[in-house]
Specification:
The chain is an all-alpha fold. It has one domain. Helix content is 67%, strand content 0%. The protein contains 3 helices and no strands. The protein is flat, with a radius of gyration of 19 Å.
Amino acid sequence: MKQIRRGTHTSVRALERDLGDWIERWNDEPRPYVWVKTAEQILDPLARYDERVTAAASTPSRQ
């Protein structure tokens, strides 16, 4: 995973190759994903963001 997070990919092909390699390694020894946040901790900020974006979209632009 570090290679994907911190890697420098100079092309889409290089990124795809690294993702494929990561998937193969993960499938060799899969582990369940452990969520570190509750659904509320994830969804509440998204709802606030949605409110801001919706309000900004309904405000006439100043030109």
